[in-house]
Amino acid sequence: MGNSDLNTLCINTIRTLAADVVRAANSGHPGAPMGCAPMAQVLFSDFVKVTPHNAHWANRDRFVLSNGHACVLQYILLHLMGFKLSMDDLKNFRQVGSCTPGHPERGHTEGIEVTTGPLGQGIANAIGLAIAEENMAATFNKPNYEIFNNYTYCILGDGCMQEGVQSEACSLAGHLQLGKLIALYDDNHITIDGDTAVSFTEDVVKRFEAYGWHVQVVDDGDSDLNAIKKAIEAAKKVQDKPSLIKVRTTIGYGSLLQGEEKTHGSPLSEDDIKQLKKKFGFNPDEKFVVPQQVYEHFHKRAEENAKAEKAWNDLVEKYCKEFPDEGKELKRRLAGKLPDGWQKALPKYTPDDDAIASRKLSEAVINKLADVIPELIGGSADLTGSNNTRWKTAVDFQPPSTKLGNYGGRYLRYGIREHGMSAIMNGIAAYQGLIPFGGTFLNFLTYAWGAARLSALSKLRVLYIMTHDSIGLGEDGPTHQPIETLALTRATPNMYTFRPADGNETSGTYLVALERSDHPSVLALSRQNLPQLKGSSIEAVRKGGYVLEPESDENPDVIIVATGSEVMIARDGVGLLRKAGLKARLVSMPCTELFDEQSLEYRQSVLLKGVPVVSVEALSTFGWQKYSHAQVGMVTFGDSGQFTDVYKKFKITAENVAETAQNAVKYFKQHGSVPELFPQFAPCT
C-alpha cells in the first residue's frame, strides 16, 4: 500500500471510528474529529514526537486540542499510537469511571497535556507551554546540547477564536516571538448556532498578522495533505514568530449532513454512519474497526519517537557528565523536587518589627526565594508596582531582539491580560520544571476565573498573587473592592485560599503553596500595613487555623476568629472584651481549607465546643457560618474613601467585634446551649 493510500485509510479510519464512538455514547461531537482527521494524520505521522513508552518524556512535543469538544479525535490518536487507552476505553466514551471523559482532562488520561473544553483555554495553555520551552532551553541548553527544543502544536476552532482569553494570550505570544508554537485553525465556519456568518466575520488572518504571527492558509484541509505538511514545515522554519495555519475544512466530512451544524454536537444516525463507512470502503455492518495497517503505521511512528527519546536520554547523560551542576539541577527539577533547605530562606518576624502590608511581605518572600528556587517564574498583569511581584535580581522574559530581556529571564510582563495570564500559567505549570505565579488585584481574579478554575481541576501548582484584598484598599471604591471573591475560591475544590495576617503567616503561606504540588493557591494580600503579631508562626499556617492568643484559662466565654488585616482588629476587640470582664480567645484562620483537612479533635481544640464563635473578615460573610455563630463582615458592596473610614462605615471595628461577641454570649446564655460547629456524623461520599 502506497503512502497516499495508507494516509487515506488512516484518515477514514479516524472518521468512521469517531462516528462509532459518539454514536455508542449517544453523546458527543463527531463533526470536528471527522473534519480535523487529515491535519491530525499529518501532525502525528510526520511531526509530533510523543511516545507511549514514556508519556512524560521531558522533551516531547506538546499537542493541545483547544477545541476540546472534539476530544474523540485525540482519544483515537492516543489509542492508535499505543498509549494506555484501549478500544474498550473508546467504547466507554463519556461513561462514569472511563478514561475517556467528555472533554480532555490532564492527569485523567495518559497523553493529555492540559485540560481543555472551555473554549480558548487550550491555545492559551499552549502559549504557556511554548514559554516554558523557551525558558528551559535558555536555562539548560549548551553548545551541542539542545536539551530542550520541542515544539508545541495546537488545533483550535472557530469557537476558540471568538473567546477573549484567546485574544489576550495570542497577542502576548506574538510579542514574545514564540517560534516553536504552531497552531492549526480548523476553519469549518460552523458553531452551535450555525454558520459563522451569523456572528463571526472578522478577518482572522489579518488579526493574527497584526499580533505578529506568521500566518498561512490551506484552502483544502479535507484532502490536500501535501499542502498541510508543507505549511507545517514552513512554520517550523520561522523561528521568530508563532505560526497560525488556517485550514479550511468541512465539518462532519463524509456524512450526509457534512458542512452543517447538525454534525457538531449530536451523534450521526445509524443510517448515516453506514453510508459513511460504505463510502470510505469499510463494512457498513461492522463497528469500531481499525485495519491492521493503520495500527502498524502508528506503532511504527511511536517506535521512531521512542528512539528519539532514547537519543535524548543518552544526550542528557553526557550533559550531566560534562556539566554536573546543571545536570543535577535539571534532574531535580524534572523530578518535581524543591531544593533542599529552601524553607530556611523564608523571612521570620517578631512583634518588634515594623508593620508592613502583606503585599510587601510577599515581595520580601519572593526576593528571598527567587534565587533559592530557580524554577519560580512569574509576573503581573501590568500591576508590578502594586502587586510587588518583581524581585531585585529579576530579568524580564523577553525576545532577545527587543533588548528588554531574554528567554532565560523569569519575570513575565503579561500586560493587562488577567485571563490570558492565568491560562498561560496553567501551560507553564503543565510543562515540567517550572512553578508559575502571577499577580493582579484580588477583585480581578474573577476576570481570570475560567483559567483559575481549571488550575484547580487540573491539580496544577499555580500561585495567584492577589493584592488589594478587601475594602481595605480604600479610595478605588466598590469597583475594585472584592467582596464575594474569597467565597468563590473557598468553595472551589482543590484550591487553597490564603489570607495571611502578618509576616510569619505570609512566609507560611508560601511554605504550603510551594510544598503542595497538586493545588493552586490564591494569596489574598493587603494594601494597608499590618503589625507583626505575637504568637504567629510560619509552621502554624500548615494547620490553616490556630490559637493566636489563648484566653487566661481553659474556659473562654467567646472565641474571635479572623483572617488577614482583620486579625489586628479582632485582637483589639479581644482587648475590649477582656476589659469588660469576658474571657476571650483569638484565633487566626489564614486558610480555611487547610483547617478543614485537620482532625476533628484538632479543630475542636481551636474552636471549642460549647463556646460562641464570632468571625471577622472585611469580605462577604458567606461561608463563615461553618466556623462561627455570628459574623462581622460585608453583606453589601463597599465604598470609596480612606480605608479607615470605610471600615468604620461598615462597622468592621474593634468596638463592633466586642459588641457582637457580647451579644452572642448573652444570646446563647439565654438559650442554654451553643450549636456545635463540627458535628460528628458520617459525611456523604
Fold and architecture overview:
The chain contains 23 helices and 20 strands. With 685 residues, it is α/β, with parallel strands linked by helices. α5 crosses α15 (418-431), α13 packs across α18 and α19 (566-579) packs across α23. It starts with a helix and ends in a 14-residue tail after the last helix.
Would you summarize the structure shown here?
This protein is α/β, with parallel strands linked by helices and 685 residues long. 40% of the residues lie in helices and 13% in strands.
Helix/strand layout:
Layout: H1 3-25, H2 31-46, E1 62-65, H3 71-81, H4 87-91, H5 121-140, E2 152-157, H6 158-162, H7 164-176, E3 181-187, E4 190-191, E5 194-195, H8 204-211, E6 214-218, H9 225-237, E7 243-248, H10 270-279, H11 292-322, H12 324-334, E8 356-357, H13 358-369, E9 376-380, H14 384-387, E10 411-413, H15 418-431, E11 435-441, H16 449-457, E12 463-467, H17 485-491, E13 496-498, H18 503-515, E14 521-524, E15 529-530, E16 546-549, E17 558-562, H19 566-579, E18 584-588, H20 592-597, H21 600-606, E19 613-620, E20 630-634, H22 643-649, H23 654-671
Parallel strand pairs: 1-2, 2-3, 3-7, 6-7, 9-10, 9-11, 11-12, 12-14, 13-14, 17-18, 17-19, 19-20
Antiparallel strand pairs: 4-5, 8-15, 16-18
Helix pairs in contact: 1-2, 1-3, 1-10, 2-3, 2-9, 5-7, 5-15, 7-15, 11-12, 13-18, 15-16, 19-23
